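Sequence in, structure out.
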Amino acid sequence: MKVAKVKKRSNGDVEYKVLNDIDTDMRWLKWGIIILIVAVLCRLILKSFGVISVDIVVGILASIGFGIIAYLVIRGHSLGKTEGKFVINIINDVVVQDAEGRNQKVLKVKFCSDSLDSYGTIDEEYVLALMSDKTILKYPIKQLNRKDEKYNHKLIVNKGEVCKNDEQKKHILRKSLISKVAGSPLFINLMTWGVIALILGFGIGVLYLIVKFVHSVENYILLFVIFLGLLAFVPLYELADKRLSHNRFCEGIRYVLRVPIGILGLTKLVMPSLTIMVTLGLMFAYSFLPVFGVVKLIELAGYSITIEGKLFIFLTFPLIIATHCSNYIRGIILRMSPFSENDHHYHLFERELVRFVYTKENLNFIVYATYFLFLFVSTFKNVQSGDSLLNKEIDIVVAKSFLVFIACTNMLDRKKSSNLEGGELLTLFVKMMIARDDEEWRMKRKNHQLKD
């Protein structure tokens, strides 16, 4: 037994004992150091004699030496954690009573052990308790002299006092590395995006399997029948839950009936992915169709457009329309699509998701990020090996398309800060053309000069 309670005194102090293996640990530590030294010497001595397997011998000896030291470190850490849990369990009731006497709540209790030097000699041990008003109570742990070579005997003082040592306060106020990482904005952000990626990945995976394996009308009918069958378990479970008694057998029946309902609940994970995919599909459809119509009209007029030219047009202008006409296209999607329905509560959140995802800023970021990845990979491949990513013509088309997109985006954004208002400009044109040097104008000009 590593830690054990000895007795509780009449004043409430508790004596306990901790396993004392310092002599044994020191002997094993010496052996570990000796084995490491031998490993170094073996490499120097055996190599001079031309022994071929010297690296194997040295590796085995070094592994044994480091293994002994690592075991001692882990063992000492484990013993410290065991003692800390034991002491906190004993003192916990006392801490709670002291907190109630102060009309406070206990936020945290921690076992602390201060070392006197780098050799691990214990200077002072104690328990710190953090109250809700940020007061820190200290419960000392005293070393006892007992004729017991196997165990160290200690005494937990159940009378707490306010800790005034700033260095000792840091033990309980300082957050652990795990707490700092878990509470950092970066970690929270990564976890948030990780959950989002899992939900979207699950939805996309299910949709991919449906597209890949469900082709015929019979398969779609079968899929629909399975969905209806799962829905049938909802009222069946509600009925069984009311009628069945609460024993082990009936609980088993309830559990079996909950399984199809749980599978049905998983289908809701597809809804976010499906909503985003439908939104993007409709967005590109509404922005692509006008461009496609214009290209067809040009070809019907007798002007032939090459494949590269069509690729450039279809890469550039639909993205410009989708980005800079986002408000109009998003309005059309919300009015003339499945998202216009309002029969269920989730329809409200579908529309909110469409409004959140499809904005000019978000689409701009996606386009820039996609082009950045393409240009980086294609440029690196070209510099590294002289080859193109797809082929030379398509790589040039994509690069030129991105340049035109950037130029158009900057031009339209700069237009907001310019003074080129069509109505005002036309008014100036008209005034300039109908202006006459009549008597009224001369009088106004003369009065203006007199005022100046």
